[in-house]
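FORM 12-B: Structure-to-Sequence Request
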């Protein structure tokens, strides 16, 4: 099967005529091909989006835009199983997780559809012979660079908010997983999205992604991925003064105090690192445990890790394969380093005997007593590897929690109300969860980082501000 680019509601070959192979991470085997876009394809997509931005899409009344996005949301929900099957095979995520991602993309469009006609400006008190007001206007054409870990969800959160605010979009999904996003485009045409409103160019980051970042017609870019690539995207965008939203992952800590409800914490701690095989920007990849309960908690967690089953996505294991051979090598290299540093493997999950030989499997690993300054406790591994670190005092926990260059998500487990708030205020993080983690992914909750985790906010009502430009109009009468 060969997949083409989606420009101005038509499926078109990349101008190069070239394709890139699509690999199934569960087997390591190619099963499809996607168009290999270059700067010329991106340019065609930007032109189509510019047409929509001043044309049918840009002129559409907010209520009509809202209804259209709501229709898209319903159509996505109707196709949930199809989208989930595509996503699961393409990314290697267990089918149950893919189903929830497919439900989430529909929910993003539902949430933002509801916000379209509720985002308004203000009037500002000023001397009596003036009337001053603010209006929120779309940027025009927005660029969206999507990673392979949650294609549907990250597409929904960024394109949903961008379309709701009246922008037209050019999307560059990751070469490793873009098929679900192409399916969404097909559904968008069926519900009547005007030509040029949504455009998708597949291919390589160094070609299509770089061309998108550098295109002067792109007025805003949202990027999710690694800090290295994020920096390049922001530098390219700076050449034409386009603002950028960067969501760059993290090394998110879960801090468990000795008064915590351990029974409630254990399954959440496990899930936060094995979900999507640890390839989650907000993975809870550092576990800080107060020393009085360290042995007990690690013992219970070890049982859970050992009981996990890693296998092919379609078999709905606890942990699927990693995305590609490079990612598997990267994770294995981190584990090799742990071994050389004498860091102990407290527990490891099992590989399903039926897991296909060529798949990129790494069963979950629990590492104990990791020195807080070691690379394993500082860098984003992006695999199912949890680094546990004991601590004595609240002060020490805070200092370790804030010791990485990241700040995306933190989980705090304690019954002490004053400590909950004290810690939440002091921990460097875009989101803090008390006695839970991730709050079910909530579309409503503003999300984003600080430091090397990036800047700008996606999700929630907050995202709508980032996708608009505020204009102040002062009238003297
Ligand atoms: P990446 O390079 O940051 O890729 C993210 C997105 O950027 C993909 O769509 C990619 O396209 C695109 N891209 C790559 N080079 C580009 C360039 N020069 N200009 C514009 N866009 C470009 O990440 P990766 O190589 O896939 O993974 C490496 C590491 O990044 C992972 O191990 C993980 O630590 C981190 N990561 C984090 C997240 C997150 O959610 N925070 C997601 C993915 C990866 P192609 O994939 O087609 O090249
Ligand atoms: Mg793939």
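FORM 12-B RESPONSE
SEQUENCE OUT:
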């Amino acid at each position: 099967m060969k997949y083409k680019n989606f420009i101005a509601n038509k499926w078109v070959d990349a101008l190069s005529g070239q394709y890139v192979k699509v690999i199934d991470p569960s087997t390591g085997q190619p099963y499809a091909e996607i168009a290999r876009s270059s700067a010329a394809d991106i340019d065609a997509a930007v032109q189509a989006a510019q047409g929509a931005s001043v044309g049918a899409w840009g002129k559409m009344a907010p209520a009509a835009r809202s209804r259209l996005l709501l229709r898209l949301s319903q159509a996505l929900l109707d196709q949930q199983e199809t989208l989930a099957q595509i996503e699961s095979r393409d990314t290697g995520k267990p089918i149950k997780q893919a189903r929830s991602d497919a439900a989430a993309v529909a929910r993003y469009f539902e949430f933002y559809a509801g916000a379209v006609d509720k985002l308004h400006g203000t009037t500002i008190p000023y001397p009596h012979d003036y009337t001053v007001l603010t209006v929120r206007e779309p940027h025009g054409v927005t660029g969206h660079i999507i990673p392979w870990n949650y294609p549907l969800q990250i597409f929904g959160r960024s394109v949903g908010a961008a379309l709701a605010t009246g922008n037209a979009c050019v999307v560059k999904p990751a070469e490793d997983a873009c098929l679900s996003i192409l399916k969404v485009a097909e559904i968008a045409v069926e519900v009547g999205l005007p030509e040029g409103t949504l455009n998708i160019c597949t291919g390589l980051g160094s070609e299509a992604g770089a061309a998108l970042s550098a295109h002067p017609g792109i007025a805003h870019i949202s990027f999710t991925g690694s800090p290295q690539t994020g920096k390049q995207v922001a530098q390219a965008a700076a050449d034409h003064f386009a603002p950028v939203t960067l969501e760059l992952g993290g090394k998110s800590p879960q801090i468990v105090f000795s008064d915590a409800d351990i029974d409630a914490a254990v399954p959440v701690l496990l899930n936060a690192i094995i979900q999507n095989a640890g390839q989650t920007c907000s993975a809870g990849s550092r576990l800080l445990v107060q020393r009085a309960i360290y042995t007990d908690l690690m013992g219970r967690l070890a049982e859970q890790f050992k009981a996990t089953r890693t296998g092919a996505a379609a078999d709905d294991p606890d942990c699927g394969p990693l995305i590609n051979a490079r990612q598997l090598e990267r994770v294995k290299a981190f584990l090799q380093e742990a071994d050389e540093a004498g860091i102990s493997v407290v527990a490891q999950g099992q590989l399903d005997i039926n897991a296909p030989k060529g798949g990129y499997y790494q069963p979950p690993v629990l590492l104990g007593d990791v020195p807080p300054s070691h690379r394993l406790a500082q860098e984003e591994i992006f695999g199912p590897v949890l680094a546990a670190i004991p601590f004595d005092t609240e002060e020490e926990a805070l200092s370790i929690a804030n010791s990485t260059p990241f700040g995306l998500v933190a989980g705090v487990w304690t019954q002490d109300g004053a400590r909950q708030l004290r810690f939440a205020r002091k921990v460097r993080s875009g989101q803090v969860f008390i006695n839970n983690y991730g709050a079910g992914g909530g579309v409503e909750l503003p999300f984003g980082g600080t430091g090397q985790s990036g800047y700008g906010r996606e999700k929630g009502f907050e995202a709508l501000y980032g996708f608009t430009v505020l204009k102040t109009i002062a009238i003297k009468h």
